[in-house]
Design goal:
The complex is a heterotetramer of chains A (119), B (404), C (127) and D (108). Chain A has 119 residues and is an alpha+beta fold. In chain A, 29% of the residues lie in helices and 29% in strands. Chain A has one domain: PRC-barrel domain (SH3 type barrels). In chain A, the strands form 2 sheets. Chain A has a 4-stranded mixed sheet with strand order 2-1-7-6, with no helix packed on it. In chain A, strands 3-4-5 form a 3-stranded antiparallel sheet. In chain A, a hairpin with a 5-residue loop joins strand 1 and strand 2. The longest helix of chain A has 13 residues. Chain D has 4 helices and 7 strands. A 4-stranded antiparallel sheet of chain D has the order 2-3-4-5. Chain D is globular, with a radius of gyration of 15 Å. In chain D, 31% of the residues are buried. The model of chain D has no long low-confidence stretch (mean pLDDT 81). Classes of the chains: A alpha+beta (119), B mainly alpha (404), C mainly alpha (127), D alpha+beta (108). Chains B and C meet through helix 5, helix 15 and helix 19 of B and helix 1, helix 2, helix 3 and helix 5 of C.
Chain lengths: 119, 404, 127, 108
């Protein structure tokens, strides 16, 4: 499996194929005398921003802490939850139960529902 | 739905997708300033756009992934951020120009200045996206777009001289005003080969749940739809060349373009022009606004879809809600719609290379398009378009600074 | 990256240099703009006479023509032409007020003058 | 080094040097395999060829190179996991020299 090509930046879907963001980061663990192990996937704006520029990461984190859902820490998904890697990366989770959709939920409950026709 | 009906609908839709404020404005400007001499630019742009639209449809039908998602997955976010930001900026200006086109149409008919119409028009665009679904957006507005065939009828009534039309199909440089000529040529190509069309079309194929069985429809729709759209553009150019050019009128403003059908159709010609401009720009405004929401949502892997209820895709619908009102502000501040149009078309040409180059990789990727990979003809067209786009990008920047 | 910047700025410089149009070319360009708007006004006048366009639109477009021509006039240095353009401005104002007052018959005269001025402008450009 | 956590996405594009400080290339791809029920990294791909591979554009790349008249195809470098020291993820370094790596992996 080519991690950069097939996993990083690919669509993340939950067990019902609901879109829950994309793979923004991959975490590995270095071990003595053994090959590095894949431990988690990460999804979240701060992880993504860090790849572009470390300063951008701090800005995004500050923004997220102040406004909206007030969540800036990325969601970590243990590699054991990964069901399938095709063009999409499918994980054995319930998207709505995770923090991956924190901003989606916040917007839905605080903004969209209050606009006529949005409910 | 029977396949034939689906094809017919698709063709009508893509006439609407092809024609927008840019296509009309650049064609009118080209015809009035240089007679038939820029016909080649429309023909060249049409061939490129047919191939690229077919590919974005094929990519979506086979891989079930839109162009934007595929670009982000294959090239990584750090690359995709380039076309994404560029496209958002261009979409912003184009959306402003499309809203401007609708406002001008309303000003022509009512006499009330276009600035006053900007927010009501933006609100109507938003309301349709908020309440409607994809097929309303796609089919409803495009059927109205058939009024633009008036330009084609006018062309026949004016009986243009065929040999001189034919000579316009071959690129030649004029004796004077070379910078202006090149600027319009770049703007025409930028208006026809518009990236938002590819992103929108591939997202639309997914909204319509296309699969491999739709590949023939895709081919017919891309070829015939874009072809018909191009015929209307040519009509605008030819009518402008026959009506305005002999009098020495160069289209610097929409008020001047509004006169091109009065000679042929009288009062109804004036109304027909306003209606065509208004409908085409309104349809395009819907598409550009939706397109921006598509590419942003797809960039981050959010849930998206015009067929979803706004609360099922909260971030997606927030994007188009905010974007359309921001773009309308351009018109509220009274920026000249035609100048904005020409500027954003030339700017489109600048961002083309970064949007088209990924086609070459994606359309040859077994994992995405499987057995439906590009043949050598399609690949050659992409390579040619990339080369063309690079030349345009290099030419467009100085022309833009010099103001054409 | 640096060499690329250098090349493109050089290209830009060359292109700008090429565009340093002679005063004569500049004059022709300005005349073309004036002619274009005067011809627009003429066409509007004709179309209005034939009842092919709404009043409001006719007035707005005439006003716009006047404004555009006034702006271009500042660039004209030749006094003879300048006088001619003042004349043009008067004619346009006359047409506009005729349209405002719905003087269907009165408009023929200034419209005829406008046609003549346009022919002169055309001849000047083609010189 | 054991138990140290590394963000793989941060490694992408990082310049690798060998034990003598010589330039090896930039990391373009990381390959993983399933071993005894868990996913582990087996090798790192470096160089232009790795980019081509990442875009799975091999056929296209090869025909393009033929067009340009090139007969020798670039292969890029595969670095086995044992040979790459990631204890400073900002500056990945080989445990051996570039020449040794090439000999070891029989490349080029």
């Amino acid at each position: 499996m080519d991690l950069i090509r097939d996993v990083l930046d690919n669509q993340l879907v939950d067990r019902h194929h609901r879109k829950m963001g994309k793979v923004d980061g991959i975490i590995i663990e270095l071990r003595d005398g053994q090959p590095p192990r894949l431990t988690d996937l990460e999804t979240g704006a701060t992880t993504l921003a860090r790849r572009l520029h470390p300063r951008l990461e701090r800005w995004i984190a500050a923004l997220e802490q102040r406004w909206g859902a007030k969540r800036s820490e990325p969601l970590r998904i243990p590699w054991a939850k990964v069901r399938q890697v095709g063009i999409d990366v499918e994980v054995d989770l319930e998207a709505e139960q995770t923090t991956a959709l924190a901003y989606e939920q916040w917007l839905r409950n605080h903004v969209i529902r209050h606009i006529p026709g949005g409910r | 739905m029977s396949k034939l009906l689906e094809i017919a609908l698709g063709i009508i839709t893509s006439i609407g997708g092809f024609l927008d404020v840019g296509a009309i404005a650049t064609a009118a400007e080209a015809g009035s300033s240089f007679k038939f001499q820029l016909i080649w630019a429309i023909l060249l742009g049409t061939v490129c756009v047919i191939f690229l639209v077919e590919m974005s449809g094929r990519l979506a039908a086979v891989s079930k992934h839109s162009l934007a998602s595929a670009m982000r997955e294959r090239f990584g976010f750090n690359f995709y951020i380039l076309p994404l930001v560029a496209e958002i900026i261009v979409d912003f200006l184009i959306l402003g120009a499309e809203i401007g086109g609708v406002c001008i149409a309303l000003q022509l008919v009512t006499g009330i200045s276009f600035q006053w119409w900007a927010l009501p028009v933006a609100f109507t665009v938003w309301l349709l996206l908020w309440k409607g679904n994809f097929s309303i957006i796609e089919n409803g507005v495009s059927f109205l777009g058939l009024v633009t065939l008036g330009f084609v009828v006018a062309t026949f009534k004016l009986r243009p001289d065929l040999p001189s039309l034919g000579s316009g199909a071959i690129p030649t440089l004029p004796q004077q005003d070379i910078t202006h000529y090149l600027f319009i040529a770049v703007s025409i190509l930028g208006a026809l080969i518009s990236p938002y069309l590819f992103y929108f079309y591939s997202s639309g194929a997914i909204e319509d749940k296309w699969d491999e069985s739709h590949l023939n429809i895709n081919r017919a729709v891309a070829g015939l739809g874009m072809g018909f759209g191009s015929v209307v553009s040519l009509g605008v150019l030819i009518v402008a060349a026959l009506v305005l050019n002999p009098r020495g009128i160069q289209v610097d403003s929409y008020e001047q373009a509004a006169l091109i059908l009065t000679q042929t159709f009288g009062y109804w010609g004036f109304i027909l022009f306003a209606a065509s401009l208004g409908i085409v720009c309104f349809g395009a405004a819907l598409e550009v606004n939706l397109d921006t929401a598509y590419i942003v949502a797809q960039a981050f892997g959010w849930n998206w879809g015009e067929n979803l209820h706004p609360q099922e895709a909260a971030r997606f619908s927030s994007v188009y809600t905010i974007f359309v009102f921001l773009a309308a502000l351009l018109m509220v501040f009274g920026i000249d719609p035609l100048q904005l149009t020409l500027f954003s078309m030339a700017l489109t040409a600048v961002i083309l290379p970064v949007v088209i180059t990924p086609f070459l990789v994606l359309m040859n990727d077994q994992e995405y398009v499987g057995n439906y990979r590009n043949g050598w003809i399609s690949n050659s067209v992409i390579i040619f378009t990339i080369a063309l786009a690079f030349v345009l990008a290099i030419v467009a920047i100085p022309l833009e600074i010099l103001g054409g | 990256m640096k060499s690329w910047l250098f090349t493109s700025s050089l290209l830009l410089l060359v292109l700008t240099a090429c565009r340093q149009a002679s005063p004569h070319d500049q004059q022709i360009k300005t005349l073309k703009t004036i002619h274009s708007w005067a011809a627009t006004a003429e066409m509007v006048g004709e179309a209005w006479t034939n009842g092919q366009i709404p009043n409001q639109y006719a007035q707005q477009t005439l006003a716009k023509s006047q404004a555009e021509i006034a702006q271009a006039r500042n660039e004209i240095t030749d006094t003879a032409i300048s006088v001619q353009i003042q004349q043009l401005d008067k004619v346009l104002a006359q047409i506009n007020s005729d349209i405002q007052q719905q003087h269907q018959s009165a408009i023929a005269e200034p419209l005829h003058q406008l046609t003549q001025i346009n022919q002169q402008l055309d001849a000047l450009i083609k010189q | 080094m054991a138990g140290q956590e590394v963000h793989l996405e941060q490694l992408l594009g990082k310049r690798v040097t060998d034990s003598l400080g010589q330039h090896v290339g930039h990391i373009q791809e990381v390959r993983a395999e399933q071993q005894e029920g868990e996913w582990v990294i087996v090798e790192y791909l470096v160089g232009i060829a790795a980019i081509v591979e990442r875009f799975s554009a091999w056929n296209l790349g090869i025909s393009f190179l033929r067009l340009l008249g090139s007969h020798k195809l670039p292969t890029g470098l595969h670095i086995p996991w044992q040979q790459l020291d990631l204890s400073d993820p900002m500056h990945p370094q080989l445990h051996c020299t570039l020449a040794e790596l090439k000999r070891m992996t029989n490349q080029l």
